[in-house]
Design goal:
This protein is of the alpha/beta class. The protein is built from 16 helices and 29 strands.
Length: 657
């Protein structure tokens, strides 16, 4: 029976962060951790179904709802799921390593990133500064301050047809006189490229006393589901001054967009999600300013790219109908909004531009990546993909583009895996297996003791086990192998990657048949999406001239291993290109060029979206892809040939597999 709750606020101390917070009795422990700034991994958004938010109650008591994710042994030791626990006494809580989100991994070097960029654009930033020296008014020339300013811009810079923000008018008189009639005017291009014969209509958004043209900066951000990445840009030189990134604060409310959309429908849920990502953005901005020693007042422009759900939540728009048939976003093209009105800590005159979205599950991050990599400029038949929980794909070239979204699930981010974790320090990412004794050789991020398996590591492990014949093409373990690594576990057969004495957690780290099945479902969704989109546009197969892989996760992929499991098409390896964070790439380049800003709208309009969720062909292709690498060996000729050759060699040597 639960104890009576005290009538005072309760103190919760979190270790190893050494953070304290006071909360009301009955407060949810996960929410308390979020409020205290303690990052706990909670991939299901607090529904109690993932088991990733386990914590140790070192002192005090909680009311808890027990789920199947908590074993009897864990429960006896005082381990609880934070999302299912309510605080009823003062607490001391320890967050174990497997439940923590650590920032160190976010700065790790990505592999094999190529600079495949848009070409032919002019360096014409949407944000411009113009210096004026005006003659002061006299009795003979007592025209208004605003008319005097506009006249000066017209005479010196041939700027006409300008609109002026009222905030500029409010401070105009004082600014001109404080600067002794010397001032710098900031203009912003907000409209797309006009028709032939028309002219753009920039808007005046700021005025400063004196000459400030040498201090001219912009921000470019990728608002990702997992991470928020930002760059501070020098608009005079066209360079990146500083870079920063952090976990999206929304991750404690759910790992994927569907979970977060569901959370947004709870009372106050949308506001919490919006505040969480804004807080993260402000943290990254503070990091950029600290690196560069640039003052916040010198930033005049903000470009963001994100998927449709992330963009709508950032803007405070209800994402409810994104997940409901017929999957409708609030808008495809978002008007510029004053960033400070969203809670972002920049000057009041700074407008935030969000990349246009194509559909509910194909957002501005994909448009940004396509524009930044120049897919829309070349005739090359290109397959562009961003692999993640919600994988997006684009097929096309400068003449046409088709796109689709594949709900792959969280396996690529370590979700749904027994010892899966996000790509953090200690996550297993490299794997090799000795074919003679089936002993593993593992490598972790940062070279630390292993504490779990990240998405790229999962792919490498499954590919290695398949090639070593430890698992069959159906993803099932061969139980007759003479190795202690393969054993019966709580979820069926499993393979021990690291013994307890070798790990950070002091527990064996294993990969199970359930884990392999989850990966097979994820990779099947991505490959089936590729096949279905091909058929939808009349292509016979996956014979692309170029495959562009975007995203931080994509940059850590091993091409050969990814083809081995059937995630990527079996094409000549030189056709694969990594561009890293394509979303951030496009946001940066459009900050430098109004040409590319125009291209972003044009690309979004030329993309034809295909919904796959209720497509019969997609389901058939998906079922066919639930095999390693595929049920149709002809889809993966080099892999099938290699596996067959290996099997023949083992048979000749009398090796039992």
């Amino acid at each position: 029976m639960a104890k009576n709750r005290p009538n005072r606020e309760l103190k919760v101390h979190f270790n190893p962060d050494n953070v304290d917070i006071e909360v009301k009795p009955g407060e949810n422990l996960l929410q308390a951790a979020i409020a205290a700034g303690v990052r706990i991994y909670a991939s299901c958004g607090g529904a109690g179904t993932c088991g990733t938010c386990k914590v140790l109650i070192e002192k005090g008591e909680v009311e808890t709802t027990r789920t199947e994710k908590l074993s009897d042994d864990e429960y006896k030791k005082g381990i609880r799921q934070a999302c299912q626990s309510r605080i009823i006494t003062d607490l001391t809580v320890y967050v174990p390593i497997e439940s923590r989100l650590e920032k160190a991994v976010l700065s790790r070097e990505q592999k094999r990133v190529s600079e495949v960029l848009a070409t032919g654009w002019r360096f014409t930033p949407p944000l411009s500064k113009f210096y004026l020296e005006l003659s002061p008014p006299t009795l003979e020339d007592n025209t208004s301050d605003l008319s005097r300013l506009l006249r000066g811009l017209r005479q010196r810079y041939h700027l006409s047809n300008l609109s002026v923000d009222f905030s500029v008018v409010k401070k105009l008189a004082k600014t001109l006189r404080d600067g002794k009639w010397k001032a710098t005017v900031t203009t912003l291009v907000t409209a797309v490229k006009p028709r032939a014969g028309d002219r753009r209509r920039p808007r005046v958004i700021n005025i400063e006393p004196g000459d400030t043209r040498d201090k001219h900066y912009s921000l470019a951000f990728d608002i990702g589901t997992t991470t928020v990445c930002g760059q501070l840009l020098d608009l005079n030189r066209g360079t990146v001054v500083a870079e920063g990134l952090a976990y999206n604060g929304q991750i404690s409310y759910g790992q994927d967009v569907i979970t977060r959309i569901a959370y947004s429908q709870k009372p106050g849920g949308l506001k919490k999600l919006q505040q969480a990502v804004v807080t993260t953005i402000n943290e990254v901005i503070a990091e950029l300013l600290a690196q560069s020693k640039v003052k916040i007042e010198l930033i005049g422009h903000f470009m963001v790219a994100g998927n449709t759900t992330m963009t709508q939540i950032l803007l405070g728009l209800d994402p409810k109908y994104i997940r409901l048939t017929p999957y409708t976003p609030v808008a495809n093209f978002f008007p510029p909004v004053l960033a400070s009105s969203l809670g972002i800590k920049v000057s009041d005159h700074v407008y935030l531009f969000a990349f246009p979205a194509v559909a509910s599950y194909v957002g501005g991050d994909i448009v940004s990546g396509v524009v930044g990599s120049g897919v829309h400029q070349r005739k090359t038949l290109t397959f562009f993909m961003d692999i993640g929980t919600n994988g997006e794909i684009v097929i096309g070239n400068s003449d046409w583009m088709a796109t689709a979204s594949c709900s792959a699930g969280p396996a690529f981010e370590g979700g749904g895996i027994k010892h899966g974790i996000v790509a953090t320090k200690g996550a297993i990412e490299d794997f090799k297996i000795n074919p003679s004794n089936l002993e593993p050789e593992i490598g972790t991020i940062g070279g630390a003791k292993p504490k779990g398996i990240c998405g790229s590591g999962l792919i490498n492990i499954v590919a290695g086990l398949l090639e070593a014949r430890v698992i069959g093409q159906n993803g099932k373990f061969n139980p007759d192998l003479s190795t202690k690594r393969v054993r019966q576990g709580g979820d069926g057969y499993e393979y021990v990657l690291a013994w307890a004495r070798e790990t950070e957690s002091g527990k064996d780290i294993v990969i199970t048949e359930v884990d392999i099945d989850n990966l097979m479902r994820a990779k099947a969704a991505m490959y089936a999406g590729c096949q279905t989109l091909n058929k939808s546009v009349g292509l016979a197969g996956c014979n692309y001239e170029q495959v562009i892989i975007a995203g931080a996760f994509g940059s850590s992929l091993d091409i050969e291993k990814s083809i081995t499991i059937g995630l990527l098409p079996d094409l000549p390896r030189e056709r694969f290109i990594f561009i890293g964070n394509g979303s951030l790439l496009g946001a940066r380049l459009t900050s430098f060029s109004t040409d590319l800003l125009d291209d972003a709208r044009r690309v979004a309009q030329m993309m034809t979206n295909f919904e796959l969720s209720e497509n019969v062909n997609f389901m058939n292709n998906y079922v066919a892809a639930l095999f390693l690498p595929h049920t149709n060996a002809k889809e993966f000729p080099t892999v099938s040939k290699r596996l067959a050759k290996q099997s023949n060699n083992e048979s000749k040597q009398g090796i039992k597999v």
